[in-house]
Specification:
With 150 residues, the protein is mainly α. The protein has a single domain, classed as Globin-like (Orthogonal Bundle). It has 7 helices and no strands. Helix 2 packs across helix 3. The longest helix has 23 residues. The relative contact order is 0.13. The structure holds protoporphyrin IX containing FE (HEM). Protoporphyrin IX containing FE binds next to helix 3, helix 4, helix 5, helix 6 and helix 7.
Amino acid sequence: MMTVKSVLVDRARAVAEQPLDRAGVDRTSIGKLVREFYAKVRNDERLGPIFVREITGDWEPHLEKMTDFWCSVILKTGDYHGRPVPAHLKLKHVTEADFEIWQTLFSQTAAELFAPETAAVFVDRAERIATSLKLAMFFRLAPAAAGRGQ
Ligand code: HEM
C-alpha cells in the first residue's frame, strides 16, 4: 500500500542509489577525507589501539580500500568488492560506544572538508551503514523472545 511513509522511504532509497554529483566530490577529495579521518582514529585513545592491533603493517592498502569503499557508496563507482560485516564481526572488543566515537570523528572530518549539505550526505550514509553493522554485531534477541522461555 502506498502511504506517506512508504513514498518517503522509496524517495530516500532512490536518492541513495544515485551517484552524488556535486562539485569537489571526487576520488581525490574522498581520499583526503579517508586519510584525515583515519589520522584522527589512530590518535583516538579508544579507537587507535583497536586499529593498531588489526593493521600491523602498511596502512596504505587499508586507506586505498576505504577510498574505494567511499567512492562506491557516494559516487557509485563499484570500486569496492569487500564484505564489511565479517570484517567487523571478528572484532570482539568493539562496543556500541566505540561506534559513537567513530561517528563523531567521521562527522567532524566530513564537516572540515565539505560544504555542510555534502558533509550531511556522507554522515547520513555512514549512519545507515553503522546501524546495519551494529545490528550484525550486537543485536541479540532476549532469551524469552528467542523462544528459550526464560
Ligand atoms: C567503532 C567502529 C569501527 C571499528 C572499530 C572498525 C574497525 C575496522 C577494522 C579494524 C577493519 C579492518 C581493517 C583492515 O584490515 O582493512 C575495518 C574494516 C572496514 N570498515 Fe570498519 N570499523 C568501525 C566502523 C565502521 C563503519 C561505521 C563503517 C562504514 C560506514 C566501516 C567500514 C569498514 C569497511 C568498508 C572495512 C573494510 C572491510 C573489508 O572489505 O575488508 N567501519 N573496520
